[in-house]
Write a structure and sequence with these properties.
Helices cover 14% and strands 54% of the residues. The chain is mainly β. A hairpin with a 2-residue loop joins strand 2 and strand 3. 23% of the residues are buried. InterPro entries: Lipid/polyisoprenoid-bd_YceI, TTHA0802/YceI-like_sf.
């Protein structure tokens, strides 16, 4: 009886090992930073500002055509204001905001993807100023004729106060009146990647 149980356990172990050994690896696609973009928009009571930040690198991993994992790194020293306001750019890079000298990189790492096909919901860890928070947002996956894949998230809403950015926040400074900047800012991300 012991021999039979031992044989069955051994067979189960070998079968599970064989299954793991033949699990297909995800296909890794490298983000082309020259074709990919991050744009941002921040709002205050009296208006808004828009701009860009450059990507340093990124990858997307697929099981077949299903997004499985990946992420990207943004170079916070490259923050640009669309109106070419050097004063605003310098302020955004300063400690009041993103502290780019001390924290030159912000990064996002995919932890979970819900949905199949073109439209998915992505959950992952966003790190800004050394602080990591989980965020979820909708994204679209497009397979292109040139064998590249494009992952697009048109609107990712981020609460800056969760990353220690409190400058002129009405939720932190209640008596600020109309001289406030909204806590939420948005980014739009387009990643073009190739195997």
């Amino acid at each position: 009886m012991k021999l039979k149980i031992t044989s069955m356990l051994l067979l189960a172990f070998v079968a599970s090992f064989a299954f793991l050994a033949f699990t297909p690896k995800a296909d890794i696609y490298t983000v082309d930073v020259t074709k990919s973009t991050i744009t941002w928009e921040g709002k205050k009571f009296a208006g808004s500002h828009k701009g860009t930040v450059d990507l340093t690198s990124g990858t997307l991993a697929f099981n077949g055509k299903k997004l499985a994992e990946g992420g990207f790194i943004a170079n916070m020293t490259t923050i640009k204001d669309a109106d070419k306001n050097g004063g605003l750019e310098n302020h955004l890079k300063a400690d009041d905001f993103f502290g780019a000298a001390k924290f030159p990189a912000a990064n996002f790492v995919i932890k979970k993807v819900d949905g199949n096909g073109a439209n998915v919901n992505v959950t992952g860890d966003l790190t800004i100023k050394g602080i990591t928070q989980s965020i979820t947002f909708p994204a679209t996956i497009t397979w292109n004729a040139d064998k590249t894949v494009t992952a697009t998230a048109d609107k990712i809403t981020i609460d800056r106060t969760k990353f220690g950015i409190q400058f002129k926040s009405k939720s932190v400074f209640a008596n600020i009146g109309d001289n406030f900047i909204y806590d939420d800012f948005t980014i739009a991300v387009k990643l073009v990647a190739k195997k």
